[in-house]
Every structure is written in structure tokens, then in C-alpha cells.
Amino acid sequence: MSAVEVRDIGYMRRALELAAQAEAQGEVPVGALVVVDDKIIGEGWNRPITAHDPTAHAEIVALRAAASTLGNYRVNGATLYVTLEPCPMCAGAIVHARVARVVYGACDPLAGSGGTVFNLLNSPALNHRTQVQGGVLVEECSQRLKVFFQARRGRNAV
Questions:
Q1: Catalytic residue status for 59
Q2: Residue 136 near residue 12 (C-beta atoms within 8 A)
């Protein structure tokens, strides 16, 4: 396993810890963090319910924190790690922030914008393209979401 892959797994484990914070607050368990030069500069987890804010997805929260840390809305050279493939709203923010790379765990078959449903992160129609790596710790990321939604629906988690 290359150093980049080892690093990706470590950061995705941190994203899973952040997802657990979302879940503890009754939110869909998605966590995200932004890394520049091997340093975490922003973290977030889903908060739309608790924040009464439809834009408070994990990626947006992490990007806001990163931009604040840098004092700039652009986070050039950054990698964003997230447990679930970004939706169109988050993909738009990622493109506008000029994130260099997105690493996600589980694919989103309903709104994934890293290539599963839409390919907004690499759209030739947009002014920035982001390198995308999916499937990092996919089993752990997928299982956390599966168990959460099964519990929400009142079914036994498997």
C-alpha cells in the first residue's frame, strides 16, 4: 500500500469519527475534513437539522472551517475527505473553493456528484476540475449509513 493510500485511510477514519458526531445528534452520519500539506484545516459533520440550515452538509461545514483557517474562500491544493460521495450542492461548493482532490467512502446512488449519478466534480462545463477517489473504507462508510437508516425505519440493523 502506498503512503498516499495509508494517509487516505487515516483521514477517512477521522471522517468516520466526525460522522459519529452527526449520528449522535440525530443527523445523517456523514463526516468530512479538509487537509492541506498533511494538516487538517477544517472539519465538519452533517448539521442541517440541528442548525436549521439546509446547506449544513458535512462538506460545507468543513469547507467553511477551512476557508476561515486560511482567511480565503479558496482552498487551493486541498484534499477533502468525506464518508459519502458529495451531492450537487456540495460539489458546487467544492468546485468554487478550488479543492484539488476529493476522497470519499460510500457512493451515493441518488445524488452522487463525483461520477455515480452526476460528474460535476469533473465537468468540462465548469471552470475547475477536481480529482476524485471513491471507495476508501467503503464498507465502514456504507455500513454506518445502512445501520442509521434501518434504525430510522424501525428495522433491525444487520
A1: yes
A2: yes
Packed helices 58-70 and 3-24: angle between N→C axes, nearest 10 degrees: 110
- pLDDT, one tens digit per residue, over 50-108 is 999 999 999 999 999 999 999 999 999 999 999 999 999 999 999 999 999 999 999 99
Angstrom distance (rounded) from CA 82 to CA 40? 13
Catalytic residue among 23, 27, 43, 59: 59
Reported for 127-131, long-range contacts at CB under 8 A and 24+ positions apart, including other chains, are 127/95, 128/95, 128/96, 128/98, 129/95, 130/94, 130/95, 130/99, 130/100, 130/101, 130/102, 131/100, 131/101, 131/102
